[in-house]
Amino acid sequence: SAPDGSEIRLLIDHRHAARRASLCEVSLAAGQVSRPLRHRTVEEIWYVLEGRGQVWRCPPTSSPEAVAPVEVEPGDALVILASWRFQFSADESGPLRFLCYTAPPWPGPQEAQPAERGGLGAATV
Description:
This protein is an all-beta fold. The chain has no helices and ten strands. Strands 1-2-9-4-7 form a five-stranded antiparallel beta sheet, with no helix packed on it. A five-stranded antiparallel beta sheet has the order 6-5-8-3-10, with no helix packed on it.
């Protein structure tokens, strides 16, 4: 599983000759809330494939309460900027599944840093 508690399946990385980006598929079970994180250096682009949920993204200089989450559904795309705190959830109707494009490629476990709190409440994973 990923540092945020979701399930992750690596699709493209250096083993496929990718040098500047990586791609994975992320799943979060119905009704679950991820652990809040921030990334040190990578930027991610998410493209929702299945399910509905919420994504909370917070700039480093903002209070978590000052930033409202956005609703997501299939076909939606968004960016997670480096150093921004983020958290996501899947609604009760089914899992949330999305593609996650990462640039530069995911450097390893030291990249994801826990955030003190997120905008979607306590993590359930």
